[in-house]
Amino acid sequence: MDKVVATAGEAVADVPEGASLAVGGFGLSGVPGVLIGALFERGVGGLWVVSNNCGAMETGLAVLLAAGRISRVTGSYIGGNKEFARQYLAGELELELIPQGTLAERLRAGGAGIPAFYTPAGVGTQVAEGGLPWRYDGAGGVAVASPAKEVREFEGTQYVLEHGIRTDFALVRAAKGDRHGNLVFNKSTRNFNPLAAMAGRVTIAEVEELVEPGEIDPDTVHLPGIFVQRVVALTPEQAGDKRIEQRTVSS
Fold this sequence. Notes:
It is a single chain. This protein has 251 residues and is α/β, with parallel strands linked by helices. It has one domain (8-115, 164-240): Glutaconate Coenzyme A-transferase (3-Layer(aba) Sandwich), CATH 3.40.1080.10. The chain has helices spanning 8-11, 33-42, 61-66, 82-89, 100-111, 126-129, 193-199, 236-240, and strands spanning 20-23, 47-50, 70-75, 94-97, 116-119, 133-136, 142-145, 151-154, 157-163, 167-178, 183-184, 200-211, 230-233. α4 links the parallel β3 (70-75) and β4. α5 crosses α7. The chain is globular, with a radius of gyration of 18 Å. The termini are far apart. It comes from Streptomyces fuscichromogenes.
């Protein structure tokens, strides 16, 4: 089955107002910026985003955030995104902060059809006991707080119950992909991208290099095409547009 779509705009044309999105990337690494840009051009808002962070240096999800298109974020890192912090503290968006490993496993579990799982991460904290501010009221008070979660003991150790995540759509970026949707990620871009792709009911991948079926060694496939519904081939200019978040040099 040929899953290639001609343009990024066509690939995201059916993403509706209020849709939930799992988005790959970490900082500036592996972010599906072209698909996010196409979604921005569509003008849809009220989006629930599941991603490690919400964009950096005015790129990626930061574009949608600055335009007020995101209403809720499930993630593990605010970082240096001042607009993200401002909107959260002002009560303009809802934020569910969770441990990074738990986020990764919730995405993987959702994609694998596992409704929930137990983890020791967060036991004895507000992650398990509830009370984390999800939304502020704009005046310093908490409008919505996280609920308490089930905690059980297994072999003398306490574990908290976490639910798998499924989203309407997933947006990911891969170094290479074929027309069947099999994807290969390069180094650190293999961060949240495979997990986000698994969690989406409709997964859209932008690929830096599009190849024909059979050109990727099956042993090197990081994500099988069964998890991908649409593929967008980037132009050389789009594929080469990679910014550096923190430049490190040696003397």
